[in-house]
Amino acid sequence: VYQEGTTYLVCCWVNHFGHILLQMFVSAVHALDKIGAMMQLRTNSINFLVDNRASSFGSKETVLSVFEFLTKKTNKVQSLQALEEKAKEDGKDNICFEELIVGMLYDDLVHGGPKIENMKLPAPHAENDMLQPLREHLENNYPLTKEAVSWAIKETKFSPNEADSFEESPPECTITFLRRKFATRTIGNFDDVINTLVKEVFVEPMWNIRTVSFDGPSLESQYLTVRSSIAFLSVSGTGSHLGMFLPEGGSSIEIVFNNYSPVKNKYICKVSPYLTCLSANSICSESNCKKATSIDVDIESFKEVMEGVKKDVLKKCNDAGESFLSEKD
Fold this sequence. Notes:
With 329 residues, the protein is an alpha/beta fold. The protein has eleven helices and twelve strands.
């Protein structure tokens, strides 16, 4: 089987969304930037080939969907295993590539060893200032227009009847709260949390507080929803990694869920040093907190954190608001 054009082989060592996004996705685009292949990526002349042999947990389909989001085309991403099956069906013994870029390979895979369950070998991972090539690529692929954001919010808003004041408030004045619809990592006192935001912190009419859910919507709509915000709130493990796509000067706020560590949110700021990463505490009222499906937010801790966020983003909101109003006039 002959593969025309340039193929980038990506070794899949994680299959959970946040880890794929931060560790595989960022490092893959950074590598392309380093070898001068970003133009090929922008013109969709690179095919991504995902090797799933090193991982046996999570969702392999998630990896493919993340890289499809990068290319905007489903036919530019496939798994090595699917390609091998196609070769067998066609009666072919070998797969040949016009040009093959190898992102990473494990010795065990090269020499036909067993699957790596608890990997302690070096793996690609995001480091300081590696995110910029990916940010620029996504901003080019998914421009932040009013039409695009309006479409995205229709897909992601938590309730179909929920209003969004995007037409009245610019992204610099928009606070996006990610909320789970399913029965895990939910917030028991959500009404109290929203009342604290709206009635005690962001009380001025210029602020736009939106509640969204990413349980189902496309990655494009998730990206545009976050990108059109100045602050992004989420519970640990519900999509916090998307905070790295906030605009420069934005704030990612993680509500710590039981045994999760806010270190993950801080790692986002390590990769994106132009963001602020903060965390608020939660309270578990169940007998076995490690297996709890719901938490209550510590309102006092939350209010203190959000007051700090408001101070950080207030100037951006004021400046953007004046410009926004003058454009409307």
